[in-house]
Design brief:
Number of helices: 3
Order of helices and strands: HHEEEEEEEEHE
Strand content: 35-45%
Distance between the termini: 62 Å
CATH architecture: Beta Barrel
Structural class: alpha+beta
Largest sheet: 8 strands, antiparallel, barrel
CATH class: Mainly Beta
Number of strands: 9
Length: 184
């Protein structure tokens, strides 16, 4: 292979790799969804219980799932996700970082658990007391219902389910997280 052909191939591969990396790092919000604004990031900090989720490989077989958000440094929030793996019979934990996509007065965050790779974390509904939240990911494959307690009132639950369905989520695919005693 001639030097000019090699250079052209290298440039093409480099551009392709950059495009793939850029695409992987982009954070989005599902079409027609809107992040909460105004949003009080400080009031959002603390422990949340996962009530329901669209299941995916990192949470498969987890019960007693919680997410704890704390101030990490100016401009970022520490994210600690924890759940009990019912098959492996042990606790799993992931530590990540969340940052605002635009500003902290909008519930549009990007979260990373794997180095420079961020995903959308969009607070699309929250009550005025910051007790219940509906979170959308980048697309219709990711959705969470969170509560400050292991249960959620039926009226809040049905409202969030209606909103999710309107956005196009297949709410029948939600996994309802079990919270309770862990027998060792």
């Amino acid at each position: 292979m001639k030097k000019a052909e090699r250079n052209k191939l290298f440039i093409t591969l480099a551009i392709s790799a950059c495009a793939i990396l850029w695409s992987a790092c982009r954070v989005k919000i599902p079409r027609n969804a809107k992040a909460v604004k105004p949003f009080d990031a400080k009031q959002y900090l603390g422990k949340w219980y996962e009530i329901a989720r669209m299941d995916f490989k990192f949470e498969k077989n987890l019960s007693n799932v919680t997410a704890t958000y704390s101030q990490e440094k100016v401009g970022s929030i520490k994210v600690k996700n924890r759940g009990y793996h019912t098959v492996e019979k042990k606790w799993k934990e992931s530590i990540g970082t969340a940052k605002p996509v635009n500003s902290f007065d909008e519930g549009r965050l990007k979260v990373s658990f794997f180095g420079p790779f961020y995903a959308g974390y969009n607070v699309i509904a929250i009550d005025s007391d910051y007790q219940y939240a509906l979170i959308a990911g980048n697309d219709l494959d990711y959705l969470w219902i969170l509560s400050r307690t292991p249960t959620i009132p039926e009226t809040v639950k049905s409202g969030y389910l209606s909103m999710a369905k309107e956005l196009g989520y297949s709410i029948e695919d939600l996994v309802w997280t079990e919270h309770g005693e862990i027998s060792q």
